[in-house]
Amino acid sequence: MQDLILFDKEELLESMDNDTDFMYSILDETTEELPKDLDALRLLFENNDAAAIRTQAHTMKGVSANIYAPALRDICLRIETAAKESDLATARDMLSELERIINLTIEEIKNT
Predict the structure, then answer these.
(1) How many structural domains does the chain have?
(2) pTM value?
(3) What is the mean pLDDT of residues 45-52?
């Protein structure tokens, strides 16, 4: 199995002109918001709203890309794509993997 790249601190730091205080403030906010974003996504699945699921997954994908969290970005992209195709069963099946990757990513960030 391919190793997951959860978080690239060096790339993020470089993108922020090596401003560690700013980087850590962004990471603190992101690690606080990701579980809330997951909860919001779960609620959207309860309503079977493919468009809203797609938008939420797209937003989460953007956040993931902004903090250089490629594994998280990739699972969000897969959910977004499935929702775009109105394949909510496939998208829903990815929720547990999304939760796992969010938890691993948060853990990785907190260990930096």
Answers:
(1) 1
(2) 0.94
(3) 96
